[in-house]
Write a structure and sequence with these properties.
single chain, alpha/beta, globular
C-alpha cells in the first residue's frame, strides 16, 4: 500500500513515514497542500494522511481536492 503523508512539520512527517515504512507500507512525505496535489497527480496513492492545520491550503481542502481528482477515493 502506498501512503502520502502531508505535514508542514518535517519531524512529524518523517516520523510517520518511518513508522509506516517499518510496518511494510510504501510511504512518502510532502510539506504542503500544493505538493500533495502535484504528487497525487504523478503517483497514485492508496491513502493520504494529512495534517489539518497548515499554512496555505489546509488538510481539509487537500482532502476535498484529492477526492475531486480521484472520485473513487474517499
Amino acid at each position: 500500500m502506498k501512503i502520502l503523508v502531508v505535514d508542514d512539520e518535517p519531524v512529524i512527517a518523517d516520523t510517520l513515514v518511518d513508522i509506516l515504512t517499518g510496518e511494510g507500507y510504501e510511504a512518502f512525505a510532502v510539506s504542503d497542500g500544493e505538493a500533495a496535489l502535484r504528487w497525487t497527480e504523478m503517483l497514485l496513492r492508496d491513502a493520504v494522511i494529512t495534517d489539518v492545520i497548515m499554512p496555505g491550503m489546509d488538510g481539509v481542502e487537500v482532502a476535498r481536492r484529492i477526492v475531486q481528482m480521484l472520485p473513487t477515493a474517499g
